[in-house]
């Protein structure tokens, strides 16, 4: 019996590893031991498979992020760290070609990913940083918009770097420490650091 959820999960794992263009429906059918006819009985084509598998991933990430934010609602800095930990753990499975091929060959699907970053993650992280500043966790002289732009651009470079795969040299925790945590340590107030320095000791 065809299990759509498992199919989409498997399909996404292959698209993110080999690229959305390179990995074909013939490859997918062969590896799953099913016919292309079965695939077309459940989906209109490859783009729909890519879209539905990506939507499933984004929904999973939303759930994980919301769960972390709720857990750390009294401590915005911890919530920001948790969000980026989820992101870096997720991107580890993405080949450098995946998002580039998605943007080039399936722009409508790529827009879903971009909207998630811009409308979900960006807004949430900025709000958390502002909240942290309001709670006295982040220094008043820190420009939150600039801080977030630096985080965003560093993550963009990690994900989209054409000639370098950072995950071949560094673990997600090492990347998290150097991209996010070191900066948060630098912008946190002395009062916050005195009470919470352990969260920066990974």
UniProtKB/TrEMBL annotation:
GO molecular function terms listed in the Swiss-Prot or TrEMBL record: DNA binding
Q: What is this protein called?
A: TetR-type transcriptional regulator
Species: Zobellia galactanivorans (strain DSM 12802 / CCUG 47099 / CIP 106680 / NCIMB 13871 / Dsij)
Name the DNA-binding segment ranges: 24-43
Q: Domain named HTH tetR-type: which ranges?
A: 1-61
Asked if the record carries the keyword RNA-binding, the reply is no
Keywords, A to Z?
A: DNA-binding
Per UniProt, residues of the HTH cro/C1-type domain are: 20-68
Specify whether Ion transport is a keyword of the entry: no
